[in-house]
Amino acid sequence: MAAMNDVPPIAERLSRMIQLPTVSAELDERGTAPFDDFVTLLAELYPRVHAALTLERHTEFGLLFHWRGRRSAPDGPLVLMAHYDVVPVDESDDWTHPPFAGVIENGSVYGRGALDDKGPLIVILEAVESLLADGFTPARDVYLSFGGNEETYGSAAIAIAAALQERGVVPWLVLDEGGAVVDAPLPFVPGRAAMIGVGEKGVMTVRLSARGDGGHASAPPRRTAVRRIARAVERLGPGTFRARTPRAVSRMLAQLAGSVAGPARLLLRLLGALPPLSARIFAALGGEAAALVRTTVAPTMQSGGTAANVLPSQASATLNLRIALGETVQSAAARLRRRIADPQVAVEVLEGSDPSPESATDNAQFALLAEALGVSHPGVPAVPYVMMAATDSRHFHRFAPAVYRFAPLEMSNAQRAAIHGVDESVEIAALERGERFHRALLQRLQ
Ligand SMILES: [Zn+2]
Prior knowledge:
Elements: H1 9-18, H2 27-30, H3 33-45, H4 47-52, E1 54-58, E2 62-67, E3 78-83, E4 104-105, E5 108-110, H5 118-133, E6 142-147, H6 156-166, E7 173-183, E8 192-200, E9 202-211, H7 225-235, H8 247-256, H9 263-273, H10 275-285, H11 287-293, E10 296-304, E11 314-323, H12 329-340, E12 346-353, H13 364-376, E13 382-387, H14 394-397, E14 403-411, H15 413-418, E15 425-427, H16 428-444
Parallel strand pairs: 3-6, 3-7, 7-14, 8-13
Antiparallel strand pairs: 1-2, 2-6, 4-5, 5-15, 7-8, 9-11, 9-12, 10-11
Helix pairs in contact: 1-5, 5-16, 8-9, 10-11, 13-16
This protein binds zinc ion.
């Protein structure tokens, strides 16, 4: 007799993963036990993976599984990436189900990490475990790279990438989190699309500071430290950086043109064919559209002065920049200095990481992703885009040319909003299709 509650095993296993609170930002409070338990749980849940693949630990939190292929391809292995740490839960948030209970209800698994990134991680392991049960061996070497501190910009993925690079292993294809199968990829484009990140913007934090003579506020000079900083910030308007449409965005527009009818189709075609035009239009639209085509500058903090009636002897502002593909931390800092054009304002880069290169979309790797998608999500087009956020895969992108950011899971707009938010959940059917994607990918690998 079948059980009353027939829960698919993949949901049970994801639930157990969610029940381990691997919150990397709360390592000090929670200790390493959830992380150690997670590694132990993987060994229990995936015995074939642990028997057939070798496992190396890199730093305390990096796991690197190596699956030897039928031949050793000279052009490198496949690397499937995911991370098993999660972001904290805000105690004041009201979750429908407790975030670390792993509740399974109405065909979904609920909890922190369901989509980011334990869901994407589990579909990789399920695919490998089930292929091993079939006696399958991949055509070329496959690595599974799992980091335990992605959310805190930790070193696990850096160490794994460095280890492979030292051994002269240059991956043929790297696949990490990022895009997903989404509804309405652009505000006016209906239908579903598999958004595949082919690059990610860089990020940098800059401090502007100025000093001036203090004194009484009753006889102010023309230019105080506060005025200098205010003027500098004002000079860093939206036009600070040149707008340029990445190739991937042009291809995205051309492809999405196929999903709409009428004048919208014509417009998307035109924008896709004329990058200088799309750059100008998106820049003029501002917001997310502008962020697609240029380096953005967001002043996030400003301070100066000590009392209401005393001239400020110092003032400062903090800027957060997202650097467009094709630029660097260095070139962006130089541009800021030129725009501010005030030698009395010091421009100091507090931290920064360059944007990634852009992966091609007309190569065998992208074609393979589209082919696997045809098996798991028939009729859903593979559409390239550029990510605004950072992923662990950027450490590979420094030396591997074909890096893509995509988790083969359906994510509605509401579900995407729940990532790093409240009521994160994943549908069990989506997990099953995700597993199918990775099986197809591994089977078609040459
Ligand atoms: Zn993530």
